Amino acid sequence: MQKIIALQRYTTIAAVAVLTVITFVIGFWFSWVFILCAVFGALTIVGIRDMRQDRHSILRNYPVLGHLRFLFESIRPEIRQYLIEGDQEEQPFSREQRSLVYQRSKGAEDKRPFGTTEKVYEAGYSWLTHSVQPVHFSDTDFRVKVGGPDCKQPYSASLYNISAMSFGSLSANAIQALNTGAKIGGFAHDTGEGGISRYHREPGGDLIYEIGSGYFGCRNDDGTFNAEKFAKQASADQVKMIEIKLSQGAKPGHGGMLPASKITPEIAEARDIPMGVDCVSPSAHSAFSSPLELMEFIGVLRERSGGKPVGFKLCIGHRREFMCMVKAMLETGIIPDFIVVDGTEGGTGAAPLEFSNHVGMPMVEGLTFVHNTLRGAGIRDHVKVGAAGKIVSAFDIARALSLGADWCNSARGYMFAIGCIQAQACHTNHCPVGVTTQDPLRQQALNVGDKAKRVARFHENTLKALGEMAGAAGLSNPCDFLPYHFMTRRGDGQMTEANDVYKYLPVGFLLDESSDEVIYKERWARASADSFAPPEDRV
After folding, report:
1. How far apart are CA 510 and CA 522, in angstroms?
2. Looking at the structure, do residues 156 and 62 belong to the same domain, yes or no?
3. Structural domains of the chain, count
4. Are 23 and 40 a contacting pair, CB within 8 Å?
5. CB atoms within 10 A of CB 387
């Protein structure tokens, strides 16, 4: 059935080829038909050329027919919006965001005439304040050192890395292109919870090994954690950091299942699972069930990895539960090297609509809460904080840095760089550009070498833009952004400084009995290092 569906993509070129032959024969009786023969013949040649080229995935997967997309792109913007993109409210990312990524990844000019495309007088418009004494950066390879006092192999991470996307969710060619781009650009590629595949290893780019509740690549036959297998995976020089996935922004608290019918030998190899059996990702971890056990698990991973940076990723839900983790850090003295805050606005290949729209805390609020809780506990200097959730532009990165992030991750931005057109067919295995499919014919359209260069260019040009923004603000480093550098127009037409809403709370305030931060301290009082349960439910 898959082969039949795949072949349907070549219906157009097959049809014009057949029409070429038919009109050629009929032309001997009716000479004017040779004109049609010439037209169909030309289209056949175009289709053959489309199938042989490797720069445009759409044309390679949809010869002849794919040219309609590029035709629409040349039409006026307002027509293009309705013909290609439809209702913008139904699109996770705007046309402006995608256009920005495409231009930067291709090395094209990203300047525009006639001023801002944003609605500057509407509520919610945000802007960066600038200095009359701007700074110029000759080097925009901005980095942050990740690794606390107990880390033996700290990692110098770029400020903008590839967020978690598993092999299996993405195609082999997509994974290779992303990791090759990371290798070229010198930044990190998060494996996602699907394990380290051969397509992660072959290019040699830096990896963040993500461990989810399925413990793929480091599991026993019953799905529990295997420390020996983990040590073998983590010992690779290519693995720079270890990330425990507690929850994912787009579907926090929701497990997953990869049907046996979709498991290929390569996926089984990467995940260390058997063929012919459904692959289950439980909604919760089995290696720990309390905050103290989580910290002990972090300690085990740090030891077994040879002292590499170990941290965890989560989307904030019950704020008290995160405070339970922080109390466990203080009690055990085991402090993670990093925490990645994932926002509910983050993407995924497939999630229940209610989860993606209404479960989990948005990145801005989650990041602010994590940053201030760590400050309140007096350990913010020991933990680096990453941020993920629709971070595509330099402005997005600058805003996240100002709210407390030390670096940022992006999934969809880099997907755009390798050709994603946001067809929203990720879960169907029919991705038209070969990014989110295991169909060998479809993914062949994604040229690894070409797309890897685009990934590297997108990273480089985005950091250049970040340097320009930091320079415009008069800063010596983008990490110096603070909330007061950003302004927003309120609904009543007045301006508000981000510092008024997302202010930094005093260091140590959670441990200071005289502190008057009531909301934080009420939750802190109800948090326990022994259990994630609320006080009234503890036995």
Report:
1. 10
2. no
3. 2
4. yes
5. 30
Cα 295 to Cα 286: distance, rounded to the nearest angstrom:
14
Q: Which of 34-38, 86-90, 304-308 has the highest mean pLDDT?
A: 304-308
pLDDT digits (tens, 9 = 90+) for 311-354: 999 999 999 999 999 999 999 999 999 999 998 887 666 666 77
Enter the tokens of residue 75. 């039409």
- Provide the pairing of β-strand 239-245 with 310-314: parallel
Asked if residue 102 belongs to a domain, the reply is no
* Residues 380 and 487 placed together within one structural domain of the fold: yes
The whole domain housing 456 covers 143-501
The Cα–Cα gap between 298 and 305 comes to: 10
Burial class (CB in 10 A: 0-12, 13-18, 19+), 6: middle
Residue 178 exposed, middle or buried by CB count within 10 Å (0-12, 13-18, 19+): buried
Tokens matching residue 30: 């009716």
CATH of the domain at 434: 3.20.20.70
pLDDT of residue 282 exceeding 70: yes
Per-residue exposure over 246-259, b if at least 16 CB sit within 10 Å of its own CB, e if not: bbbbbbbebebebe
Name the pairing type of β-strands 143-146 and 384-388. unpaired
Q: Is residue 530 part of a domain?
A: no
Radius of gyration of the chain (CA): 25
